């Protein structure tokens, strides 16, 4: 249908030649980075393999890598027809809620831990299969991009390993399974940079709506898989720690005496979930971290960055995964601080001049008044929801940019996504900001924050007040009773006839 339409429009030979040349140059540029991308993949895989801590784990990892190589031999054919995926894409993901994760961890026994391992073992291939299928629906020009192809390779190998992993029956089996999951988590820490670079290179070759839809599906599914994997690993490590203490074993003793738990042994653990997470505490921690980043970047003394004032229901708590909520709040505070400091940069120059004129005696041009207006964070709590508003006086968002703040493909965003070339790994966590210059923008923070919120049935909204500032709102369910917001099926795109 698209080809017929194109023929009907009868473009000139000259314009067709220009488009063809542009696509050819794009392909040549992409292929030029292929060898470097493959070398990074080999390096990361080698580092991940080092996580195996026993001979049995090493043998299992070696077998998995052998399977991966065998799978890779026919990767070109599998890219467009992978009949092996049919059995998995026909299945719907078994979604969970935060409350289910918490309740499962309480009174955790060996049988429940083994059951958790087998749930994760069977669920990860299903969720990976649906995303592998998404790659196959991309236009061919995007499928040949080396960065996107690297992600496809990683997903296919992980899918192949997990679907072939034997059922977990014992604690030792579970430890080997956790080693395998950790290895894959480390390998997949390069997925976000590779997706970012791939999308940047395909921004003018694929419809923007299609790329945004693809990226949102990829990222929200990635969060869901890492949530299941990290929750099970955390429960397993906590269970082993408690079992070791119960048996009176030291930290240096191996697992030989921990092959099985004593009859009736159980622990009270909830993994990576926090049932009573303090909103104000998370906001204050993120504010201190963000302020430190900008003060270091601008060579300012501590306490110079805009003050963050928390008000409203400051004692509110809710059920969440702190790493997810922290990422959202941290990104919003970073954006607010960046715009406020940029708008009032002249005050820094005036203050520096006053200090120099006073021969370093500490006289400020503004006396005891802060250099920057404060950022106000208002917390509102109801029976079912938590709402957080972040208000700044940074002047608002450029009206030309505002409609595209959630997009990955706007030309301004595409330019920033090229900054991922300077980043080897990224897991979308707060502590990663220490390894990246705070003044380096990827155009990724707001869309990723929205993906985190949507995953648990929430949302992030931004309202710009031209000439004054921005009000950003985060809404999240409070009780942890909302199932994961993941879609297995690829959305059908309506086409004209």
From TrEMBL:
The keyword Transmembrane does not apply. Keywords: ATP-binding, Kinase, Mitochondrion, Nucleotide-binding, Transferase. One of its GO terms (cellular component) is mitochondrial matrix. Residues 96-241 form the Branched-chain alpha-ketoacid dehydrogenase kinase/Pyruvate dehydrogenase kinase N-terminal domain. It is found in: Mitochondrion matrix. GO terms for molecular function: ATP binding; pyruvate dehydrogenase (acetyl-transferring) kinase activity. One of its GO terms (biological process) is regulation of glucose metabolic process. It is an enzyme of class 2 (transferase). Its EC number is 2.7.11.-. InterPro entries: AK/P_DHK_N_sf, BCDHK/PDK_N, BCKD/PDK, HATPase_C_sf, HATPase_dom. Residues 324-478 form the Histidine kinase/HSP90-like ATPase domain. Belongs to the PDK/BCKDK protein kinase family. PANTHER family: [PYRUVATE DEHYDROGENASE (ACETYL-TRANSFERRING)] KINASE 2, MITOCHONDRIAL, PYRUVATE DEHYDROGENASE KINASE. This is Protein-serine/threonine kinase. It comes from Coemansia erecta. The gene is PKP2.
């Amino acid at each position: 249908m698209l080809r017929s339409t194109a023929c009907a429009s009868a473009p000139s030979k000259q314009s067709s030649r220009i488009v063809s040349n542009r696509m050819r140059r794009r392909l040549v540029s992409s292929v030029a980075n292929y060898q470097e991308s493959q070398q990074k993949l080999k390096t990361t895989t080698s580092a991940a393999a080092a996580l195996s801590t026993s001979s049995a784990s090493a043998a299992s990892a070696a077998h998995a890598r052998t399977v991966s190589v065998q799978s890779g031999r026919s990767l070109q054919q599998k890219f467009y027809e992978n009949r092996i995926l049919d059995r998995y894409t026909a299945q719907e993901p078994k979604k969970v809620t935060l409350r289910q994760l918490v309740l499962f961890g309480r009174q955790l026994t060996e049988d429940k831990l083994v059951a958790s391992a087998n749930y994760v073992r069977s669920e990860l291939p299903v969720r990976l299969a649906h995303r592998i299928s998404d790659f196959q629906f991309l236009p061919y020009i995007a499928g040949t991009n080396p960065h996107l192809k690297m992600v496809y390779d990683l997903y296919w190998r992980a899918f192949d390993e997990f679907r072939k992993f034997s059922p977990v029956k014992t604690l030792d089996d579970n430890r080997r399974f956790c080693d395998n999951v950790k290895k894959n988590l480390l390998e997949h820490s390069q997925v976000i940079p590779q997706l970012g670079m791939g999308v940047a290179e395909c921004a003018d070759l694929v419809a923007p709506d299609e790329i945004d839809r693809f990226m949102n599906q990829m990222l929200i599914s990635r969060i869901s898989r890492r949530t299941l994997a990290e929750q099970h690993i955390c429960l397993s490590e906590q269970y082993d720690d408690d079992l070791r203490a119960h048996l009176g074993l030291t930290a240096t003793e191996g697992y030989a005496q921990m092959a099985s738990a004593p009859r009736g042994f159980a622990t009270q653990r909830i993994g990576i979930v926090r049932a009573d997470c303090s909103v104000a505490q998370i906001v204050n921690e993120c504010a201190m971290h963000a302020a430190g980043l900008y003060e270091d970047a601008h060579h300012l003394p501590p306490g110079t960055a805009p003050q963050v004032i928390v008000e409203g229901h400051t004692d509110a708590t809710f059920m969440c995964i702190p790493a997810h909520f922290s990422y959202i709040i941290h990104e919003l505070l970073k954006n607010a601080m960046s715009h406020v400091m940029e708008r009032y940069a002249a005050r820094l120059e005036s203050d520096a001049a006053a200090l120099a004129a006073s021969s370093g005696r500490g006289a400020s041009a503004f006396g005891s008044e802060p250099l920057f207006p404060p950022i106000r964070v208002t917390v509102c709590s109801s029976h079912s929801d938590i709402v957080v508003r972040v208000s700044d006086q940074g002047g608002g968002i450029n009206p030309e940019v505002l409609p595209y703040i959630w997009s990955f493909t706007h030309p301004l965003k595409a330019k920033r996504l090229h900054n991922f070339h300077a980043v080897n790994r990224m897991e979308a966590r707060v502590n990663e900001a220490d390894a990246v210059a705070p003044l380096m923008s990827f155009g990724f923070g707001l869309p990723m924050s929205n993906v985190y919120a949507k995953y648990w049935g929430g949302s992030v909204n931004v309202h710009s007040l031209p000439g004054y500032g921005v009000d950003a709102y985060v809404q999240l369910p409070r009780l942890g009773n909302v199932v994961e917001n993941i879609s297995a099926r690829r959305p059908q795109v309506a086409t004209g006839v």
